[in-house]
Protein 1
Amino acid sequence: MNPAYRIHEYSTQIFKQIIAEADSVSEAYIDSKSHTFYFQEYFRVLRASTIIVEYDYIDHDFLEDFSFYYVKCFKRYSRKCARLHFFDISFSKEEFDGFLNGGNSNLKEEILQKAYLGFIVLKPLPKTIIGRTCIKTYPSDKDRRQFPPLREYEANLFGIKLTVNSLAYQEQDNVVAACATSSLWSVFNSTGRLFQHKILSPVEISEAACSSLPLESRFFPNPGLSSAQMAQAIRAIGLEPYLIKVEDQELLKAATYAYLKCKIPMLFGFLLMDKSGKEPMPLGLHAVAITGFSLGEPAPIPYGRTGFLSIASRIDKVYSHDDQVGPFSRMVLNYDTIKMDNGNAVKTILSSWGGSDRKLDRIRAIPTILLIPVYNKIRITFQTIQETITHFDRIIETFRLNKVLPFKERLVWDIYLTTVNEVKSGMLSSKKWRNKLRLQVLMQSMPRFIWRATAFCKGQYVIDLLFDATDLEQSPLLFNAVGYDEDFFETLIDLSRQDDLPAVLKDPMFLRILEWFSNQKI
């Protein structure tokens, strides 16, 4: 019989031994899992020093799967898990015991909380061992790395309240869940708090995905979900699936940035290719949950025929919950090209998978889709706003090149979905807002969800365009614009009142924005 807990000094070898002992598997098998290599590097970066192993732990999500499937097996699987807690300070069992029993100890609850790195639940199953995992993210590196969908998780350890900002992850379970189900589970852990819906367990996700679609195979064991089934699971919790084909990695960057800024994670589907041999070999389709991004490019990269510049183009990596690798695993964008069977050369993404030769630079991902779960009142899509701003920017750039506008450099755009509360809180706390503008925006009645497009020139604010994300597609959409550059703002008002506009300005997208300016006073 296990004690209530054990304390170990952290090392990779100890970590592997704990997993092997908890799940009665060989260390050789644990050593072969890609997760082992991933967590070794992850905990090195986080500077893990101590592990507390909590035995006889009941995990809600595993209990749901256990009661539906595993309890009916002839072999008796345990319903109890082990939970590993990680800290970045060193302490002994004697010190921890002393703290628990109220004796002399240097440990205090606030010290343990400050040092807490998170937890990993170990499921009592063969092979698929890593259960609910909530671990701190990589350091932000001066806001280069951003993980907007994080939420707070609480772990009560013998009465000690410990919290960690993370997004729940777990390894794929081939019986009740496949990669898409695991990714959806992670996504729902975030959207459940954001949009107030029930967070389904993996088995409930698989049931919802397959309940009203033609039977492609048996529900359990589950071999994987199609994009249609993933969309059905999203509808089952009251959200709407928005699908974007993202063969273009610049579109992948822009859409990922736009929705993650509103704390909405998403499903990312791609084809995996193994470059370990002489010729790339397809490994099949895979799905992950995108949970963050890195603004690693030093400057925006021109996009499209017009050379459009955006903050999103600075993304050089996305971070994903990949059930075959680990939480917040790195994916490097625009890594290299692969020549496909049809002769086309496509840009690839470097994944965190190991190839057949165990090296981490062998597996590439070729993007296919983004599937974004959005609240049903968010009717205006990112692509609509992106197209509108691209047309607007093209005409503004024509004016700039012809010296009509005084900007010395091209405008850079920051486009993302947000909420009225975020807009007003940001404006209230920002020092960049003049009193007149602050009052104007803070007092205005606004929709709950807003598309915000902010233009900058040489790092200085130029204008904010606010679009109603809940409106009808055929409406003007723009409901407010805040001008930081008064000359530019007045120029737009003048243009909006001209009866005979030059042909270059008669772009429907540009006129859509000018319609709002025509009702403004100078």
Protein 2
Amino acid sequence: MASNVLQAQQRDQHPWLAHYPPAVPPTLDEAKIGTLVDLIGSACRTYAERPAFESFGKAITFAETLRAAEAFAAWLQAQGLKKGDRVALMMPNILAYPVTIFGTLLGGFTVVNVNPLYTARELTHQVNDSGARILVVIENFAHVVEEAKPHLTLDRIVIATPGDLMGFKGTIVNFVSRHVKKAVKPFDLPGSIPLGTLLRGRGPMTPVTVAPEDVAFLQYTGGTTGVAKGATLTHRNVAANVQQAGFWLEWVLESPQGRPDYQHVMVTALPLYHIFALTCCCMFLLRIGAKSLLIANPRDIGGFVKMLKGSRFTLFSGVNTLYSALANHAEIGSVDFGEMRFAVAGGMATQAATARQWKAVTGKPIIEGYGLSETSPIATINRPDISEFTGTIGYPIPSTEIAIRDAEGNDLPMGEAGEVCIRGPQVMAGYWNRPDETAKSMTPDGYFRSGDVGIMLPDGQIKLVDRMKDMVLVSGFNVYPNEVEDVLASHPGVREAAVIGLPDEHSGEVVAAFVVRKDATLTSDELRAYCRENLTGYKVPKQIFFRETLPKTNVGKVLRRALREEVVAGAAVREG
């Protein structure tokens, strides 16, 4: 009786619980969350002979993945790394990536995920801020490491290739990458070691006791300052999120009757260095013994569709821009979506038009979720049994509380817009070596302040309204105006600059820069070329407006809102 009263109280305080699928419990048993080391070991032994990851048509089993991961862990230990030391990984979705992630974790070390498209400046900050001792980089981007190397504090550099772990087929894949596609620029990194070499002939790794509160990942995010800082994600944070995802989704993933060896296959087009793919397309798949189809270059939509036509898959993950590009491709109708159980989206808002197109092509709605690097990432998600796109970000997942609060931290009534605040076992331990930023982001009662504006609907679903931060979201990737402004301002021909995001039908938003010139002859093309030398491509301003002055407050702060209003009113004159 007392238990029923408690459950009734919970449902009054947390209205979303009344709308949970019957198979989904309201909470986790947090004492049983465990670590990612437990998850990796258990999955690779339970599903040993199943294919775990596939890249360029070559698959490796769970057992092969574990052997290679343990060999990498043994090599790290032989370099003198101690428990908790950081290992930076700079690769797209190739077989070497999950192997090095797992090996780093098995050895008791911390993974620092690095976007392989980063410039030397961006790479230098992240490696040095994290204190990484080892960097693993795909050879296609090793020239960037060479440029940054004089400024990096590293012990060793490891060079991976697209063909690692593929045997003879890997030789062909590497030949095509180097000589046909010419994707590898010359580089000179004396003392570096090929990943394939260090994986061969390694002795056994020394088992390490890893605790739930040990740090698993430093997941870098820009935050309101524009200076990239590492969200400290513990084994407990990510393992909890994997378990939460399991409770929410597994009841719709049951195997067909009479097929005990049925295996789910996830199309993994989002890069594993992105927190959404890391948790949902790598760690969660371990839990259910599924295979991940690794897509190294999802921007090649024609090649992507060709791969889909030749593959069996049951699960799909992506962002709005990817779903839109696929749905509009001329040959998407020849792809067999018959076995697909669901398609999940995150990273950026999914547009209703895209969701309609996707369902028309596949017969399945897009299930939208929401989260941040700081929440490992899933905080809310739509029910997996929806028949139509909802336009909301769904319900808080088990053991997760969402509060909508005003600027003073007061809870707001249902239906009023305020800051989305999140509490649960998946919320980060804090920002790496940034207690000041951690204090700003956390409330006294343990909620993470997302910086996003949302409302709670009567049934407990959350609908996002806007973002409190000035962050620009380009195809699911965060762009922070301060960082771009700093680069623009460092150009000798620029007096000052301001950056905002403007709506775009393809990428959600694009970066727009308002520039006051010091040199009247400076052109938009020259400025973009300068930005490309210092910024990842999606951060480079797509639109540039040259002005005589920038609108400012009495204390000199640029009014970005006024700049947006100018564009909407058609008063801004774009040059480039």
Protein 3
Amino acid sequence: MFLSLLYPDEESAARGARKEGTPHIDARVCAELGLDLLLPLRGSELSPFFTAEPEVIAYRQEIFADMRRTPALCDVLGDAIPVLFDILELRRMDEELSAGSESYLYSITEIELYVSCIDSLAKGLLPLSDRVESRGFRALCDRIRELSESDYYRELNRGLSQLSSRIREVKSITVGVNLDARLRPASAGVVSVNAEPFKSGELLDKILRMSFRNDSFTCIAQLQAYDKSQPENRRDAMTYAFHSALSDVFRSSVRGWRKIVGEYVLENTDFLLKILPEIEFVTCASALMASLAERGCTLCLPRILPQEEKAFAAKELYNADVALRIDDEIVCNDFSFDDNGRIYILTGPNRGGKSVITCAVGQAQALAQLGLYAPAAELAISPVDGIFTHFPEGAEDTIDKGRLGEECARLREIFDEMTEHSLVLLDESLSSTGAYEASYIAAQILAGFGTARCRGIFSTHLHELAAGIDEINARVAEEGGVRLDTLVAGIEEGKRSFRIWRRKPDGKSYARDIADKYGLSFESLKAQLDGKKA
């Protein structure tokens, strides 16, 4: 029986497993866009969860709509995650062991964990089943109801309780050792399995209490920790002997039961273990949306348009990572790609919001293609087949080629992999060389992107590049490419506003505003010098 929280049917799930319809959004892009911080997953990477299929996105949007309406769903799934990870770890440990007492105990513990997981899901999900509307949650509720209300499951609970109580009662074993004529151990075996631990004692104490025959659990000498002062090979041999003895005792009562019940548990826990990455993902994503909502941030369900439209139209877009890290009011911006601007040259002052809005566009695109709500008031968007980023690198990454060589190599890789349905985000690329060389190379790159007909943002301090956009557009038009336009991260009254406007830049005005703000204009400096003379 197929069940998934991320895919509507087996065919779409199989395509996802084969990475068909999965956009190129790798771990590096996720890190540069801050997605690995927004969605920290323990058991898997984020990249495989992206999709470009509208029907898959719509299916996931139903899931997240349920989770927004009913936050308790996130709590219920969150409680199941550590239990399922424990089952995976027990299976791993069991595989490393030969059949022995530990293996039997691991198997019984797995069954206990399975029962506790089903109980927890039944108690948490079934009361909420009337509230859920998504196909995925309805199917999960139906499966949990079927399992938890079955006669076999009730018998499993009773049998497990009886078996567990017998095994958990084992506190000690009595070992009989035969000695040879020289009082050396000749043979040994288990005499009994006991529900009471042995206690330290001395022979004289037992004689004085006159209870020698009745006090079988008080030793005639002090108990010693068997692994202290013991060579490692002797400890291992003793441990093996004890486990072998316990296995002999457990085998008759546990082995047959384990086989029958184990097959049932494997069959009925595997579906939970298979969707564990999905459970962790939707829980983590729901927690992100809840955190943004608590912060007072607006979220919207993206409207998915055909890929051929190359649409991206957002109102009140913001950077989710920044929104969760600062206490100040979040600045939102309207942003869109259209026929007059599929690629933007974004200029403005340092720390004026260029990187923030560039990341915000990438985040919105990525979150929409995960099926999540987007950090905006409205978002109409076409899926992309890849997101490619080129953000500033540290010196440690550029030892072999030098920083400029590394930047150029990465840009060439992007051209190898991108298509006209890709989104390319460049932040301060080519800043490792002089303004003249950087502007020349950047103009070539932008002309290439325009000719490739992709969507993108080139965030840069090179105001001269934006000034030459007409020349770039003329060159691209000859090749049948898309138009480029300019965006400006502005300053208002000498202060960075973090607002983004669609207009041509005026680099001198930025410099003048900054000089005025810090008292470094010629007029300010002259007044300061005149004051010193006075």
Protein 4
Amino acid sequence: MKWSNVKLILVREIRDQLRDRRTLFMIAVLPLVLYPLLGMSFFQVAQFMREHAIRVLVLGAPHSPDLPPLVQEDRFSNNLFADPFAAQLLHLTLRDLPADEGPRQDPLAEARREMREGNFEVVVYFPPNFVSQFERFHSALLHHGTPEGDSQASEAELQVPRIEIFPNLSKEASKAAHRRVAGVLDRWRDEIGQQNLKDTQLPPATAKPFEITTLDVAEEGQHKAAAWSKILPFVLLIWALTGAFYPAIDLCAGEKERGTLETLLSSPAERIEIVWGKLLTIMIFSMATATLNLASLAVTGSFILGQLPLMPEFGPPPGLAILWLLIALVPVSALFSALCLALAAFARSTKEGQYYLMPLVLVTMPLTILPMSPGVELSLGNSLIPVTGVVLLLRAMLEGNYLAALPFIPIVVAVTLCCCWLAIRWATNQFNNESVLFRESERWDVGLWVKHLLRDREATPSFGEAMFCGVLILLIKFFMSFSLDVGNLAVAAAVTQLVVIATPALLMTIMLTRSPAQTLLLRKPPLAAVAAAVLLAVALHPTVNVLQVIVNHVYPLDERLAEQLKGMTAGLDNMWVLFLVLAVMPAICEEVAFRGFILSGFRRMGHKWTAIVLSSIFFGASHALFQQSLIACLLGAVIAFLAIQTGSLLPGVLFHVVHNSLALFVGQLKPYLEDDQHWLHWLMRGASEEGQLYHWPVVIGSLLAAGAILSWFHRLPYARTAEESLQEAIEHQSARWMPS
């Protein structure tokens, strides 16, 4: 064997692989881009993993001058916490016990009832005679060994009743609450012990004068259900995804390699029928894979874990758990099958198709792991998140919390079905696109690529250039966020807008396009359109205000983050500076980037509304807070619609300026709203923690006015791109020849 020949073949094969642009992208470029984007997503969703408020019921809280303070103003004393903010997370409900009442007959039953009703995460029970017995205990300590002390009674007097904590250790929220409350009581007991050692000269054993007992209120079988609820949903989703991917690759990319796809497409079957046939085939394999893996896991896990001495009661999952999993498997398999089918249709070969598995898994994994985090419970906000809502709903059903899960079932089902519909439509579009189905392998050479960019520039950017610009802005913003001085809001906002958002878009416009004016929509719009855009911003403000309150209610802002945001704006009293950095500058820079370069590139796909949605998603992702991103996505779609209908960037810029200015102006009205006689009460109900709230007639009237203005914009004739005109012609021709 000649190693020189091996070397030549090695060099040839490596060079051949590096010339394939998509192979190079998946191996070298995607890892550099994907993980920073996942890091940005982590910061967006990190607030959902914050420490939530814990509801604690305290029965018979002690009050005695001989005891260090335990409760102050309906909270545990701040002296018992190293971090004062941690004390605010424990919300106490105090219930006194009559002094003449003896020990309760069944505090366990009362604790179970309270937590079964969902009122509290943990219950703390102090016996009614706790204070009196402790005072006798303390008095006996002080007089121990003195003539006043009675050595015969000292043993009885040194007995202090136990404090009992009632958590439900089968629930993550109650388990976390138990750890916090037990830690507080331990520190309180240590303070008492130190005080006892200071008052007397007794041995260190007297530093812990009473015991704290934990009594688990979980019913029989709840621990087993809780354990399975953390395992089975995760396995269900992962294997449903894996089981759908490889059949999809074989049915699409494999058929391309075997040359049988052309035969299938030339058959009398329509494209939509082919898509549904392949989709149902993939779904069958996905469901079969997930079902077999779940069955094997359940049998093997229950047998092995049941033999362990620490888990003798861990048996097979409850029978209803299998039913809920099988019901959830149908929409989950449909969603993953449609996504895999679309990706497989895009892939030219099975090798290229396999490259797409890892990004799909990396996007799905955080949505699957997030529900496993401590403190993440099923709520309205979490149920609206795809995949995450399914996992949380399955957890609740497997744990037997049917009443708590019932209100969220329609929401999770609606979100999942909507995602399925979008994924199926995407797969259908892939099969209707001949350039996707029959594209050739793309060889990539750095020199030729650079020459092509500089020599063959078009009037507007391509879809890939617009996508690259959006990703580049997000990446720069992610890394710049670690070096910016967030304490100075004006400087941070100016640097972000000018350097992070505007500069990449302007540089790419100059370097990659022949017509910056056409790319950035630098045209003079009709005067009526300008006035209508300003009126639309004013009309939409009450509705956006209500949406912001709803979003903040569904996804509450972390209290620490809220305090930081207030601190950032507290030093800026100059309204003109705020107007410049928070209204004018974002309106210009963000419109140039997102409604200029990026929207122009996305329109090259030939679908106006797809371009609007994609550009607004990038616009929303550029905002730091998740709550801001949701509202920004909706407003971004409205502004992109104005830009397309008018063919100019100016109406969107003015809409943006007016909208941000109104948000700043309304925030300054709180002192006036405190006066009940002020005329503003005709418009607003007053200020709250979420913001200023408008009266419902004002909101409804403004929404109707906004709808009328948008309808006027919709009737305006707009300049279609060549790709949009071609796509409309194709759709018209298809509809003409569609059999009735």
